[in-house]
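Attaching the record inline, Q. Sequence:
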Amino acid sequence: MRVFVTGATGFVGWHLVEALLARGDEVRCLARPASAALLDPSKTEVTLGDLTNFDSLRRGLAGIEAVYHCAADYRLYVADPEAMYAANVEGTRNILRAAAEAGVQRVVYTSTVGALGLNADASPADEQTPVGLSDMVGHYKRSKFLAERVAEEWVSKGLPLVIVNPSTPVGERDIKPTATGRMILDFLRGRIPVYVDTGLNLVDVRDVAAGHILAMERGRIGEKYILGHKDMSLKAILDSLSSIAGLPSPRLRVPHWLPLAVAAADTALARVRGGKPRFELDAVRLSRKKMFFDSGKAVRDLGLPQTPVEEALGRAVRWFRLNGYVEGRAA
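Structure, as predicted:
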């Protein structure tokens, strides 16, 4: 199959491209000139452009049968959010319009569990948990929530589209890295002396890539599927990293107001001085709720694999160590 992938240089997108190539698909990737060097031209065809350039999307989709739209501006701190909405919301509108005009057979749109609802009692939420724009914390979640609405609009217009909502992917080759990758790095560097009472749903990034392909093959048009696996408290995640990396896990739990105050001050300082805060306010605000999810629908309907997340955490730790992200005892 001839497929088009946006976000191929990102964490999930890179693993998706590798999985597509392994099964023999012909892969064409959208990339900006500055990031095109991250792709192997001997394996994939590269189309230069971006989501805000409709003509580049039209050119890239010529002769394409299926589209994986994985690209997103994923930052929890933005001094000027306009570019984020342009990429995540209007960029999604552009790529789906181009896909419709090209007559592609199928589209998989990569959303996030951050655009879904949460249960007040911290029980696992699913695809049907009620949610509204007012529930979204920060510009990233708001932009992805709005982008999902754009995807649903195009389904109503007849575009054969399936939505996937990855939870928190972990694994090797988190180059940038993602927020979760930074957490793993902070642990390896000894920068997490305390923890708060929160939790995440972790999933192997390879399983997320497989889930995209399964959604393309088996997903029902207009449906959404949570690509996740294991709900874990932050303390359990840090204890698992401790066992894998041979480093001590923090023992002291602190109330949420303490990191919230530190992040608020750090973010305010970053706005004055410029640059990025070390402690992102939206990240701390998000930690006030446990992000627990039920991926049963994807397991039942798609056959989503459920690789033990400890294996993925182990690969992440090894990759960061082998690629110079940590030094000294942690390496």
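The chain has a mean pLDDT of 94. The first strand starts at residue 2 and ends at 6.

More tomorrow.
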